[in-house]
């Protein structure tokens, strides 16, 4: 994942911003419970990307991946709508507690940019993606970096069209969504009223996307490491923040690790999971990264 890549990550101030006041208001509405839903994973299971993660002789990469992680950020669905039998195969090859977090197809988000043509495509996408049944986690829609607030009407129409029974998270990359407090407030209100998660992106070159403003009881975090020692310090900061949010009522923690060079994603994920187990009693399997 090249988004937000910088040449010298040691020069970036990775200090985690304070929470937006609305985050505490959202969490205060939650019933405090001891249990949380922790889904931690990588963006893909391809052997070529996750070099040295798979033991020699591994025949089915998804089966092995799903024995080590309880979720995947399913980026493959960004590029095509797969035939129905493919979703059934994914379902059958993963354990009962596994969850897929599919990315909305780019024909909706990037090529047609939420115009009037995307609704039929969305229906086709959902028709097959929901074949994952209870193994389908939150679908996330990532909008192009040049898709700005001038497209507000398209966003509003699409959010109103989205079936409310299917969980959705949205990622806004254009800087103007957050540069103006009025626009940011309107966006937040739209997401909150429709129970849509406000994606947090932690990447070196775009610190403005660390808005720290939850719109529902879901922390959907897309973490992009820089292949640099500071990656682990940043994860420590996330552990502290998630611990705080959990104490205030957060129950859904969905955290996906990317790298500019993906080969270290399992190492970072294992580090995060081990800390979550100790600090937040997550009780997750720690991936074997030896």
UniProtKB/TrEMBL annotation:
Its domain of life?
Answer: Bacteria
Which InterPro entries does the record match to this protein? DUF72 (IPR002763), UPF0759_sf (IPR036520)
> What is an example of a Pfam family matching this protein?
DUF72
This protein is called what? DUF72 domain-containing protein
| Native organism | Flagellimonas spongiicola
